[in-house]
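Minutes, structural biology subgroup

Action item carried over from last meeting: produce the structure token record for UPF0337 protein NE0131 (Nitrosomonas europaea). EB confirmed the sequence was re-checked against the source entry. Recorded below for completeness.
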Amino acid sequence: MFIFNLNKKESKMNEDRIKGQWKQLAGKIKERYGIAHDEARKQVKKFHDSL
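Output recorded by EB:
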């Protein structure tokens, strides 16, 4: 069993770090998805233009 001896200030700092890291990860995922989505949309547009 783990026993954590953190005071409120340390606990809040850890919580803030975790939230910040989560936001960074979510932003990276959205950025990659957005880029992939935008490229796919451009390819579809090129295909339609070529018809």
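Discussion: The helical segments are 8-50.
Next step: EB to file the record with the rest of the batch.
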